[in-house]
Fold:
Amino acid sequence: MTIKCCFDKVDHYNKYSVGGGVFLQCSRVATRDGFCFQHHPDAVAKRKEEQQERRRRRNRREAFLARCRAAELAAKFPGA
Structure:
């Protein structure tokens, strides 16, 4: 018998939840400490950090582009 991964909580904002959150068991085989590769706490923390880094890069890029647009408008319409 294969051991399945831990239970994964689905919150009530997720499209798969019904009425405020349910517990669904992952269908993958548990490989590390009772967790599959996706739900292992180390993997979850790594994905979260990568997501935060992507958001920081995107926000810096958007701020840079906004400054460039403002500078272009200032050059196009001086004194406005």
